[in-house]
Write a structure and sequence with these properties.
Elements (H helix, E strand, L loop, with lengths): L23 E5 L2 E5 L2 H5 L7 E6 L9 H8 L13 H18 E11 L2 E3 L2 E3 L1 H11 L3 E9 L9 H5 L12 E8 L16 H6 L15 E3 L16 H11 L5 E4 L6 H8 L3 E6 L2 H21 L1
Parallel strand pairs: 2-11, 3-4, 3-10, 7-9, 10-11
Antiparallel strand pairs: 1-2, 4-8, 5-6, 7-8
Helix pairs in contact: 7-8, 8-9
The structure holds S-adenosylmethionine.
Length: 305
């Protein structure tokens, strides 16, 4: 096992990673993507080293990513759900978000996109359970933002058209949650982790309030979802969702982490917003795809420099 000092995220916010254990690290100009279990990947990082994490965890057994990748590779015609017990799933998340708490700086943010899941014909209130799991391990709940998708993928609401009677109401599902959690600050009156940033730095990171009086000042964000033909991942979130989180909760050159990065939408948004990034995912297919997209953006940015 390499000495931890070799893989520390330095105070200066530069990312220095050497060959990690049980995970492979792929470097890009402004970040690194770990291929492997995010628990093992996070174990390579120092305590209190990052300011913002944004992710969308696997939604219980909604998608079997191994089989989805086999389908992408043409090895399977379709993928099947994998049965995982809810307790096992809870423990999986708790272990990983506890490790995330360790590597987050006091006052740092953990933003999570999550939605209820359908299981055996019922809707599981996953987001609400998730908040209590996070609180039980020490994350402080701060905000609940609703991501509203202007396009509904399902036809649930059609049931009432066929049976226009009480008890047949199944609204189309057009929303997901974006929960903001924070690690306890070092001092109670310094809850904004960025209180110490210089005037110049604040000016360099001034948020453009042009659109702010519209929907952005409210906790319902209307953002178009990613269409299947736009991304190989079965549940990629829009880059715009990640961009807003990054703009509101980090400064330029800070490190943004996505522990379940999939097709790398968070990393792409980080790159576009002038942040550094660390991504993690178990599927090589997604990692390769994400790195390719990031390389293209880096190329474009070089041309405009
Ligand atoms: C909901 S998806 C994230 C999609 C991503 N937000 C995007 O826009 O593409 C969850 C991801 O978690 C990954 N995953 C599952 N178990 C993991 C683990 N133990 N460590 C890291 N990633 C994992 C899956 O491969 C999947 O890509």
């Amino acid at each position: 096992m390499p000495a931890l000092s070799q893989v520390r995220v330095e105070k200066k916010e530069t990312i220095q990673i050497v060959q990690a254990v049980e995970v492979k690290a792929f470097k890009s100009k402004n970040g690194v993507f770990f291929l492997g279990d995010c628990l093992k990947a996070m174990q390579q990082l120092a305590d209190d080293s990052i300011t913002l994490a944004f992710t969308s965890p696997p939604y219980h057994n909604a998608i079997n990513y191994e089989e989805h990748v086999e389908k992408l590779q043409g090895k399977k015609a379709r993928w099947e759900r994998k049965e995982v017990s809810y307790t096992e799933y809870r423990d999986f998340l708790i272990d990983r978000f506890r490790e995330l708490l360790r590597i987050t700086k006091p006052g740092g943010y953990n933003v999570v996109n999550i939605a209820p899941v359908g299981w055996n014909g019922t809707r599981v209130a996953l987001p609400f359970h998730f908040v209590s799991w996070m609180e039980s391990i020490g994350w402080k709940f701060c905000e609940d933002i609703i991501w509203e998708k202007p396009i509904a993928k399902d036809r649930r609401s059609g049931v009432l058209l066929q049976h226009p009677y009480p008890g047949y109401y199944y609204p189309s599902l057009v929303s997901e949650y974006v929960f903001v959690f924070q690690k306890a600050a070092e001092k109670e009156n310094k809850e904004n982790i960025y209180w110490h940033r210089s005037k110049e730095e604040k000016e360099r990171n001034r948020i453009d309030l042009k659109d702010y009086q519209g929907e952005m000042s409210k906790n319902v964000w209307k953002i178009r979802p990613v269409a299947p033909q736009e991304n190989i991942h079965p549940c990629a979130f829009p880059v715009e969702l990640a961009s807003r989180v990054i703009k509101f909760y980090s400064y330029k050159d800070d490190i943004v982490v996505d522990i379940f990065a999939g097709s790398g939408q968070t990393l792409l948004a980080a790159e576009m917003q002038g942040r550094k990034f660390i991504g993690m995912d178990t599927q090589k297919e997604y990692v390769d795809y994400a790195l390719e997209k990031i390389k293209n953006i880096e190329g474009q940015q070089k041309l405009t420099d």
